[in-house]
Amino acid sequence: MATLASARNETQHGWAAALGQPRVALAAMIILAIATRAVSWVNPIPNIDEQFYLYVGERIWRGDWPYLDVWDRKPPGLFLFYALLARLGGGSMLAVNLVATMFVISTAWVIRRIGLLAATPASATMAAITYIVIVDLMGGQNGQSPVFYNLFMAFAAEQGARALIEGGDRRLMFGRAKSAMLWCGLALSFKPVAAAEGIYLGLSFLFCLRRANTGYSAMVGMALAMIGIAIIPTLLFAAPFLARGPEAYDALYFATVLSVFHKNSWGLGSQLYGLVFLAMNCFVVIGYAGAGLAVPRESRAGRESRLYVVGWIFAALIGWLMVPNFYDHYALPLLMPVSLATAQFYERASGPLFFSAFVAFSLIQRPTWTLADHLATRNQFERLSAEVNQARHGGCVAVLGGPLRLYQTTIDCRLSRYVFSDHLTYFVEQGAIGADNGVELAKILARFPAVIVMQEDSDHRHKQTLRATRMIYDQLARHYRRAYVSGTGLQSVINTVVVYQRRDLASAG
Are the CB atoms for 312 and 200 separated by under 8 Å? Predict the structure, then answer.
């Protein structure tokens, strides 16, 4: 394999060959990761999901329990990880972004190591950098959960690739399988859809064992062992809930397992839109990956690596399609094997040229050149936070639309455990939260918070149920007045956020 790599490397000269050197490769990854991500570091509210995760992470340090005191369906591993980020950065979104950037670089480095099994160092590095660049175009510029757990899946996939390509005795194979399943288990504790990739990796290990003439009884035992290892992280995170009692465990089980099956769908159109969105944003990489997979493989390692990557792509695609509604960052796990598949394309004499064109094309896309937008959003949010604080006169705030970070910059009265207002108002969440959505929304309104914050852009409004919209605006019409309108922001998270002040407080100002 080393001879093959050396022969191929002769076709790559200058900077392309230099990328094959580990230090140069790492430096290039760091530079490009910072160049594509740093523009958003000034933004305290980059995405509603990260705001919510960080909020829950902070509440954990104050004694709150996910699912009991703050409801969501994400697994506990994600919230505990964000609790560490909250403590590390003092609740700062900048700390989240810095750690996320380190995770992206680390994931790319593992992709490079997998690529080295069947490609030259330069081509493997280009594939890794492709991942760094493309992540931003699919909603991964900040701290979405796949940005973090992709690293765990990359570690697991590396073990699977080495087992398939390098082989080894049964003991080595078992060790790699156990290591891979532990990494898969950590990914599962962040997002359940990682199960699709985990199942694929488990099957690939069983294939390797069977090829090594392992008996069926040993394979069954290994399969059970892999399943057991994969659920260890989940069991560890669930242990405190089990210790607290049946109510806590039931809340955990419903939120993380059952609630997703109660969630409504926007329909097939949502997934079709997702596929179109993926094709439009990643058509260059998809084309490179397809061309790379079509390259004839002379070596056994090359042929097996192609089959492995194809299987990984299909597993990640299944994981993406398991979610009935489309969000761009749900496709982030798919970008790992797709980026890896480009390595063989970059082996061509013209590969470095196509790589340079792709990087240049990506660097001029909107996510990389939005510093002015992020600065404007930061200024808008600071003004919004000040207006909310002034309008509430010491009273409570209900964020029924708009930045959840207002709970951290103004006051958090904990009017409900359903802090994420989409759980109460969105069509897809009706009947999926373990309580009557309308009743829970009515409880918040009945407490007459001093300020109600709404996001009134069309994208937000059309996702709400008519029942929720009527309940909220009937209350606003009777008891509240508009105190401040943020205007149309440069980012959707702050677009047309309206601050409603309870009318009896107007004279106090």
Answer: yes
